[in-house]
Amino acid sequence: MKKKTAVVTGGAGFLGSHLCDKLISEGYRVIAIDNLLTGNIENISHLFGHPDFQFTLYDVTNYLHVAGEVDFILHFASPASPIDYLKFPIQTLKVGSLGTYKALGLAKEKNATLLLASTSEVYGDPNIHPQKEDYWGNVNPIGPRGVYDEAKRFAEAITMAYHRYHNVSTRIVRIFNTYGPRMRLDDGRALPTFVGQALRGEDITVFGDGSQTRSFCFVSDLIDGIYKLLISSEVFPVNIGNPEEITIKQFAEEVLKLTDSKSKIIYQELPEDDPKIRQPDISRARTLLNWKPKVNRHEGLKITIDYFKSKV
Ligand code: UDP
Prior knowledge:
This protein is an alpha/beta fold. It contains nine helices and 13 strands. It has a seven-stranded parallel sheet, with helices on both faces. It has a two-stranded parallel sheet with strand order 7-10. It has a two-stranded parallel sheet with strand order 8-13. The site of uridine-5'-diphosphate has 15 residues, from helix 5 and strand 8.
């Protein structure tokens, strides 16, 4: 049987590269596209030379042409950590808006299914807890995080419009905090920052009083959920994440313990619009996709810390 072809935008990124691996292992031909603004070629270097893998260095906010048949497009290109999107605000807005538009145009042209990587950031600093997909969110459009949040909200809107008006087959995954190997040590997110600091014996920088919460999902669980959504027929957004919630202070303490570090926690100013709580309600993923996370935080953190040890 002829192999199906999947295009992964942001294919050299943290999640994009894991998706490329998953799709290859499921028997797809994979075309990864990335402009390497925040992606890293090392994440996919093991796939070079694989007969079913191709890489194109390209900025997907421009006209997108792919030769031949395409069955799936997974739009994962975007700076995705708060310091990345503060550093590249215009690129973040462009890839979420123009990039999604171009990816949808390609899906329409090729009669392919498009899966949009959306985010828990569409819920902003949430007023309901845990967050369900029917919550419309509490986002500050002009705040520093607005460039990411609003780009993704626009991306969801245009994805639904292409589905409704052009009949394009679409999926929307709302991704909650995810961690694992191939995260960048310097991407500014809590986990790589804390692990880097703990391994180097530096102070651990907790922002605010550390009482804000997040719920962290190990990357293999997330990728499983996304793949299940891709091959389902669910058009409306689905949260994928691990509902196990923890305060950032507890999280820092966990990292200290698992790295056996003597570092001490120091407290710094909380960034503007930093969500105070975050936990996915995954009822839809459970019922529609028969999916739930399997890797507990302790296990996932150990794998991730081992990976970072080779990078510090
Ligand atoms: N955070 C922190 N210290 C750091 C980096 C992040 O205390 O060095 C906090 C941040 O303010 C937020 C939480 O950890 O409350 C998670 O931040 P991250 O950047 O990982 O992701 P977010 O969920 O905010 O997108």
